[in-house]
Amino acid sequence: MQAWYLLYCKRGQLQRAQEHLERQSVNCLMPTIALEKIIRGKRTMVSEPLFPNYLFIEFDPEVIHTTTISATRGVNNFVRFGALPTIVPSAVIHQLSIYKPEGITDPETPHEGDSVLITDGAFEGLEAIFTEPDGEARSMLLLNLLNKQVLQSVKNTDFQKI
Fold it and tell me: Which NCBIfam families match (predicted)?
């Protein structure tokens, strides 16, 4: 009887495991989330797995044996509670398949008014307030220098959110 199970995959091999399992006629579900991240100094939307290294699969253990699944490239093992692989309820799979979040910002990406710490450059070690992006690779920060607030453009790679 077909049922949903949860696999733990080897680090960085989630896509490989999914491809090889789909070749074996196993249904796979890897929920993803769209995140806004700063990559190489630029704000970029990236799609990442909602559960890194975990893959939901649907198969019939009487047709495809669990050892065949475990031996698939990229798969580490089944998630188990006790000796047997745990069956994931269909209601959970249904909720995960319809859940489509978008526009979520990485917690490390600062927003207007957030405190940041400058980690590189002439102002290294100073705290500042993030005001706005300044192009793709820089941002405007409000610095407190000699009791005077100064607006300064700083590379996105030279500061981090506190």
Answer: PRK09014.1 (NF006534), RfaH (TIGR01955)
Map out the domains of the chain with their CATH numbers: 3-105 (3.30.70.940), 115-161 (2.30.30.30)
**138 contacts 156 by C-beta, under 8 angstroms:** yes
- Report the 10 Å Cβ neighbour count for 27: 13
Q: Categorize the per-residue pLDDT at 1 as very low, low, confident or very high, splitting at 50, 70 and 90.
A: confident
Average pLDDT of the residues in 10-16 = 95
How many whole angstroms separate alpha carbon 78 and alpha carbon 85? 6
Give the global pTM.
Answer: 0.63
